[in-house]
Amino acid sequence: MDFSWPLVLAGALTGAAVGLTGMGGGALMTPLLVMIFGVDPTAAVGSDLLASVAMKPVGAAVHHRAGTVRWDFVRWLLPTAVPAGFAGAFAMHLLGRGDELTSRLKYVIGGALLLAVLGLAARALLDRRRAALPAAAQDTGTQRVRPVPTLLIGLVGGLIVGLTSVGAGTLIIVLLMLTHPRLQARELVGTDLVQAVPLVAAAAAGHLVAGDTSLSLAGVLLLGAIPGIYLGARVSAKAPNRLLRGVLAILLVGSGLALWNVPTSVIVAASAGLAVLGVATALVRGGRRRADPVPVPTEGAEAASAAP
């Protein structure tokens, strides 16, 4: 594929989304390539995975230095995730050949995108419930690995990533949250990013062997993605993360429905409904915060504050 500034820009936007939110790589890049640039879905999945091989280690290195990676979880995820990711590239071709494969793969990718949206919603709900618990209830010790559920998460997540390039940064985190509720948020993100490096590499290798990858396309995408993810990671602490995740959810819903050939009017209505729901939820939560009573200091606290 020839050099294209719009493709570089698409890579930069996707990289920035990953740097800002920790997710959205395949979920944004693959539908962009298919719907906007007219890339064949098989080539879009393979090329996106190859580009992700260079992007994932950036976030993984940051979390490794911060000590937020649970290597015991990584060791139980990879035995099933890596072979499943590699096999997913070949499982794709069980959907058919030629135009039949292209049509069916669009539906599979669209389904994975909508599943990712459900994952975003589930993660937000679980985070909110955890934050609402008293401090004593949240501090329940170190979460131990549950081997069988973790192996199954690697198997399911790896297969979906190999098939669609979607899910490494969304579905696996949610499944880990559901099966290991005491894992800290920073441990979830760090562990997922580290295990995603060999997972995405295996899936990309499978697509290379299957002949589904365009090296030139992946290279053009990386020209924008590498600086995009770096800049996104630099400003992530200052960015309104909830707003960004809300925008990402709306984009994923619109992309998933479009790949399912849903009428444009329905897509617009669904996206607008999500936006209204998000704004209403934010307003309600803001009103609750303002309505919360200001804590009155106890006599001991007043005495302590008055002491020199």
Mind explaining what this structure looks like?
This protein has one domain. It contains 13 helices and no strands. It has helices at 5-21, 25-36, 41-66, 71-91, 98-132, 135-138, 147-164, 171-179, 185-210, 215-235, 241-259, 264-291, 299-306. Helix 2 packs antiparallel against helix 3 (41-66), helix 2 (25-36) packs across helix 11 (241-259) and helix 11 (241-259) runs antiparallel to helix 12. The chain is globular, with a radius of gyration of 21 Å. The N and C termini lie far apart (72 Å).
List keywords for this structure.
mainly alpha; disordered C terminus; 308 residues; single chain
How are the SSEs ordered, and which strands pair?
Elements: H1 5-21, H2 25-36, H3 41-66, H4 71-91, H5 98-132, H6 135-138, H7 147-164, H8 171-179, H9 185-210, H10 215-235, H11 241-259, H12 264-291, H13 299-306
Helix pairs in contact: 1-2, 1-10, 2-3, 2-11, 3-9, 3-10, 4-7, 4-9, 5-8, 5-11, 7-8, 7-9, 11-12
